[in-house]
Amino acid sequence: MSGLFDRVTPLAFDQFLSPNEYDGVREEHERNQSIMERVYIIIFIIYVIIGLSALTVFFSLRDWYIIKQRNFMLTFINGIFAFISGFVTLLVQFKPLPCGVTLYVSDVINPFYNAIFLSRSLRIVLLYRFNIFKVTALNKKRKVKSTFMGTQEPNYYLPKVYKKVDRIIYGVIAAPTILALFITIYMHTRETEKHEKYLDICNFTKVNGPAADLLKSEETGKVMGKLYSIAQIFGMIMAFAMIIMVYFVSKVKDSSKYGAKFECLSTIFLIIAITLLNLFINKDVSNEKIAMHNGIKQGLRQQNPGQTSQYIMENYSSAFSSIQYPLRILISIYDYTKGGRVLFCIISTYIIFSAIILPIIKCYNSKKEKNKYFHEPTSSIQYFYKVLNSPPLIEELRNIAIKEFSVENVLFWENYQILQKMIYRYQIEYRKAERIGNPKLISQYDFEGYYQQQLQTFSVSSMDDYSYDPNMPVPREILPYYVSFYQTFIDSMGPASVNISGATVKHIYGEMCTYPTIGMFDEAKNEIVEMMYSSIFPILLRQNRKQLHNATINGF
């Protein structure tokens, strides 16, 4: 008996293609098919239960920060279509469906959910670079007074970048999907070399048997091979694109060990591996070899009418010497995976695991960890305010926020603190001018120079005598800085627009247009602090809990 890595004989290959023509082989084949059917039914039931449960729970957790950070809608759609692909792929292993259904799942839906995954990987890369760009762009020196007086500040450049990111993402999804759909429809409506319509051979109503059997058939093998080759071609294109994507994703820094970066890289490697394995299998067990073998066999049958397949294969094996037959192990994999199509179910299953189930686990682990350390001083909102007033820890929070694509929240806090210092400085200088006896001297103070100094170095200075009245009108000298802050962080078209409630935005806009007060951004500040407290602060705690605990003991 030959080994797994030996090439099969013409007889063994013919038994693989036409098991019903051989006594003994037919019974063994039927027995194996029955066992495989039961196994696939069990796998199918487990897949459906886990897949539907995971998608339902993921949808229910859509408002959690961990889910939002991955773009809920894009991830959820990716999960749904990955589930549909795996559902159909497993279902046809024990319940044949019309050929047209399996064809469009293979040639259109598979490229679609792979394109969504590719776009999600690209989104991570672009947003990571975009968040770094926000920090550098907003830290550049700006003359706010000239902005207020009429010089146009490039506030609308970065939002255009955001829109461009969205257009690129949608393009990455739409282009391969539409192209795959058009090519599949074009091929499906054409005629074969025998002037038969592909649509008649592979339609949406008639069940002609499993696709794997149609691929091995003398009559339909070549035709089906051409139709299903579209999925292989797009799979190779996607694999090539993902090889390039590996380089860019590897440059992204992730704050979590099993975060979005892990999901992208692990899924990319799996897609590349499965695509190459499927290509290798279908190259060795190719439709050309099957067609050539069946053609030679058919010619020998015509020369030897009435003879069995076994007689022909045993006595005329030399006639098949021009064919390099596949490896035995690849024949087995081809048979058990139905022409390699079941291999792609591994990809859809892993996408559901990494994109849907892993974030769910992270949500519940986050909740569990929060409850575990709930009574510790370092977990309180009061302690978080101490962290926000520590320049080294603010730096760490900013780095975490870049990785979590929410750096605008930390930038908001830093610039809010600068506004408070501007008001504090105004009060000091105003009191000095009053003591001299000329309050108008306040206009001679270089507030712009003080502002630029604060932009360059974030520090916490003593403000013990700062009398803060939120209803105090914004002084004319400080108003340009409030306007700049509004345009940067509150305006929906601002370069670092924060995600606050519509009611808060409306309230701020109303004050800005009528009677600006120094406390007009306080409600927004509270929302941002709560957002950072529930999103990036747990990550900081997880990474530095021991050091922060020691700092608390030492009176931090």
From TrEMBL:
InterPro entries: RGS, RGS_sf, RGS_subdomain_2. The chain crosses the membrane at residues 39-61, 73-92, 112-133, 168-187, 227-250, 262-281, 341-361. Pfam families: RGS. Coiled coil: none annotated. Signal peptide: none annotated. Keywords: Membrane, Transmembrane, Transmembrane helix. Residues 383-544 form the RGS domain. It comes from the Eukaryota. This is RGS domain-containing protein. It comes from Neocallimastix californiae.
